[in-house]
Amino acid sequence: MPSSDTRGLICQGFKRLMAKKQFDKITVTDISEECGINRQTFYYHFHDKYELLNMIFYNEVISELVDGLSVYNWYTKFLEMLKKIKNNSKFYRNALNISYGGEFRNYLLDVSTKLFYDTVETLSGNQPIDDKERLFISKFFAYGVSGMIIDWVTSGMKESPECITSHLKEIIEDGWIAFITNYMKS
Length: 186
Fold this sequence. Notes:
78% helix
């Protein structure tokens, strides 16, 4: 079996286990048995279950979010990300409820910060903006967006992805209007 097929098999087996069992209770032996492989095969592909978790986060959510992300399409990209998370709700709730769940939080925060950093530059037009102020504003919005998404996941994803994204869009657009209005006055 090709290496990428084996990695995919391991990822799917791990996700099935995460839907039934807490991350902290899953062992490499559990993953190997679920996939019908031996432990050595697992270790050939992954250092540990944390690396496996990171790879799933990155490949299923983050890479698709950041690929082609711009000021003009962020709403659609975030909506698709939330739909994917909701479709795998047990896995993502379990992953975010563990003590190690910070990896997904960090990815989301980094992506959001970069998006807002670029947005501040776009919206400020020809007016130069201090880099420290730009970073502060970017992080402010990024923490808000990341926090809302994490809260949505960990509290059971009761609202639809469309509802969450719509609220984020309203708040962000209103926030940008206020930012630009105030910044241009100074």
